[in-house]
Amino acid sequence: MQASDSRYDVAVVGAGVFGVWTAWHLHRAGQKVILIDAHGPAHARASSAGETRVIRAAYGPDEIYARYAMRALAQWRQTLLALGCGELLRSSGVLWLQRPDSVSGAQSLAVLAELAIAHERLDPAALTARYPQIQLPPDIWAILEPDAGALLARRAVQRLALELQREGVPLLRAEIAAVRGSGRLDGVVAASGAAIRARQHVFACGPWLGKVLPDLLGPRIFPTRQEVYYFGTPAADPRFMIEHLPVWLDYDRDYYGIPDIEGRGFKIAHDRHGGAIDPDAAERAPSPEGIEAARAFLARRFPLLAGAPLIGAEVCQYENTSNGDLIVDRHPALDNVWIVGGGSGHGFKHGPAIGEHAAQRILDSTAAEPRFLLANKCSTQQRQVH
Known about the structure:
This protein is of the alpha/beta class. The chain is 26% helix and 23% strand. The protein has a domain of 187 residues: 3-Layer(bba) Sandwich (FAD/NAD(P)-binding domain).
C-alpha cells in the first residue's frame, strides 16, 4: 500500500462518542472520512452504549473540563435540535451534593463563577425545601447547574452516525487487527485481511485501545467493570421523573443518578472503579452484591424508593487512564496515527468538543492541549479527575 494511493483522507476506528464526533468535525472540514467499528455505533458492549449519561460543568479545580463541557453542551444542543431529536438532551439541571467543608465544592463554585456558567448554591434549608424526595444530613449543601442535565447516550451517538452515513460517510463493520511498528501507517487491516487505505488514522476505540495498539496503550488503558441499576418508581408519582428532579451526584463521590426518563426507571450507579474487564468476553450480568449495595444507598438517600423493584441493569466499562485525563494525541512512533480516548467515566459529555479538538489537531489548526498528551499517562493508576 502506498500513501499516495489512499482512498480516504481519514479512517476513524471506533464509532462511539469520540469517534463519531471526530468524524463529524472532519467531514464538515471537507475531509473524506470512513468510520469503522466492529459492532456498529454505540453497540451493547461499547462505553457509549448506555441509555443515559450526565453532562455537567462542575469539576472542582479542573477549569479545562468545565470549559470543554460548556463547549460540548452548546454543540449537543444545537446539533440534536438541527437533526430533529432535541429530546435526546434533557436540561433537568445537575445537583451536586456537598459536605460542609468540601474543598472540591468551593473550587467548583469559583471556576463556575469565573467562567460565567449558570449555577446556584443551595444551603441546607433551600435544598430540603426544593427537593424533599432526597434525605440528607442537616448540614449538606449543593451546587445546582440549571442548564446541565442528561443525554440519551446510545440514541444520540447512533443518530449522529446515521446522519454521517446519509451525508456520504461510509460506516464499515470490521474488526481491526492490532497495529504495531513505526514510521507511517499506510492503512488499517481488518481481521478478515481487507485493507482500508487512508492518509491519517484515528483510533477512538474506547476500552479496545489497549488491544488495537497493544505496545503503546496496553499498559496505559485500564478498562474497569461498572454496574448501573434502574429501580421502579411509584405509579402515578412524578417526584422521581426527570421533569421534577435534577440529575444528582452524591457528596462522597460514590453514587450518582438520573431520574426516570421515558419510564426507564430511576437510575443509580457507583462511580468507584470496578474490577478489570475484557470488553469482548465479559458477561454483562449485574452482581448480587452490587444490587444490594445500591438498594441500601437508595433506602438511605431516597427513602420513598426503599423496596423499589429492580427493573433493569447494565454492565458497561470505564476506559481509564492513569490519572483520569482524556487523550487526544499523535502516536509517538507513527506520525499519521492519532489517539482519541481515555474517557475515564467522565468523557462522554465532552464528545463534541473533544471531536472538534481532535479534528483541529489532525488538520494542524490548533495547538496540543497538555492535559490530553500521552506523555502524561503512565502505567500506575492514581485517579485525579472526577
